[in-house]
Amino acid sequence: MEKALIEELIELAIKQLEFSYAPYSHFKVGAALLAKSGNRYTGCNIENAAYTPTNCAERTAFFKAVSEGEREFQAICIVGGRDGVLTDYAAPCGVCRQVMMEFCNPDTFQIILAAGRTRYEVFTLRELLPQGFGPADLQ
Ligand code: THU
Predict the structure, then answer these.
(1) Residue 64, burial from CB neighbour count under 10 angstroms (0-12, 13-18, 19+)
(2) Residue 58: active-site member
(3) Is the pTM here over 0.85, yes or no?
(4) Cα(10)–Cα(115) distance, integer angstroms
(5) How does pLDDT run across 74-131, given as a tens digit for each residue?
(6) How many CA atoms lie within 13 A of 41 on its CB side?
(7) Best mutation site among 93, 100, 128 for ligand 1, i.e. most ligand atoms within 8 A of its Cβ?
(8) If you placed Cys at 110, which of 19, 55, 75, 121 could pair as Cys (CB 3.0 to 4.6 Å)?
(9) What's the confidence (pLDDT) of residue 10?
(10) d(Cα 65, Cα 67) in Å, to the nearest integer?
(11) CA 19 – CA 14 distance, rounded (Å)
């Protein structure tokens, strides 16, 4: 992926930290999802007093996109940190990796983990979810 595009997604993900609703963990997460159409969808984590209804930033972005008709995706950028301060990479949880597996080609979908505007690393979904179970397994 081009550096300029990666940096744009990082900027969009960082912007989402403002909207993160994390009064319980205080761990704010932002995501920016790039569909194959070129459209961008953002997301933040949304916590809940009952804890389990909490939605991760990545899933917020995916569900927004799918609910608008997108089914194919190129990349997602994720940032996160306590009180929204980025000190390290915030890797996607297992549930979010599984949601990515539903809609993305694991060998080509790019997951950008960023700890700052110029500090990032790019992984494929296959690298973060080896031997993942997906729609093809039900064929
Ligand atoms: N969180 C995300 O938004 N994405 C992840 O992949 C990991 C965890 C959120 C959920 C919860 O609001 C907070 O981070 C602490 O777990």
Answers:
(1) middle
(2) yes
(3) yes
(4) 9
(5) 999 999 999 999 999 999 999 999 999 999 999 999 999 999 999 999 999 999 999 9
(6) 24
(7) 93
(8) 75
(9) 98
(10) 5
(11) 10
